[in-house]
Amino acid sequence: MPRKWGQIIIIDKQLDLVLVITAGNYNQNNLQKSSWDIYLDFIYPALTN
C-alpha cells in the first residue's frame, strides 16, 4: 500500500465510510507509521469493534 506523501482516500461500502487523510509526509522514509498504517492500526479497528 501507499508509503509516500501521506494522502489516501478510502471508500468502504460495507462500513458506509469515506475516509480522506491528507498528511505531509513528503517522501520521508524515516516515518514510523504511514497514513495507511494509521488507518489499519487505529481507525479501522475502532469502526469494526
The total count of strands amounts to: 2
The number of helical runs is 1
Helix proportion: 25-40%
Average of the residue pLDDT scores: 83
Fraction in beta strands = 15-25%
The major β-sheet equals: 2 strands, antiparallel
Q: In sequence order, what are the helices and strands, one letter per element?
A: EEH
Describe the structure.
This protein is α+β, with helices and mostly antiparallel strands and 49 residues long. The protein contains one helix and two strands. Strands 1-2 form a two-stranded antiparallel sheet. A hairpin with a 4-residue loop joins strand 1 (8-12) and strand 2. The model has no long low-confidence stretch (mean pLDDT 83).
Structure summarized in a few sentences:
By secondary structure, the protein is α+β, with helices and mostly antiparallel strands.
Keywords:
49 residues, 2 strands, single chain, alpha+beta, two-stranded antiparallel ribbon, 1 helix, 29% helix
Note the topology.
Elements: E1 8-12, E2 17-21, H1 35-48
Antiparallel strand pairs: 1-2
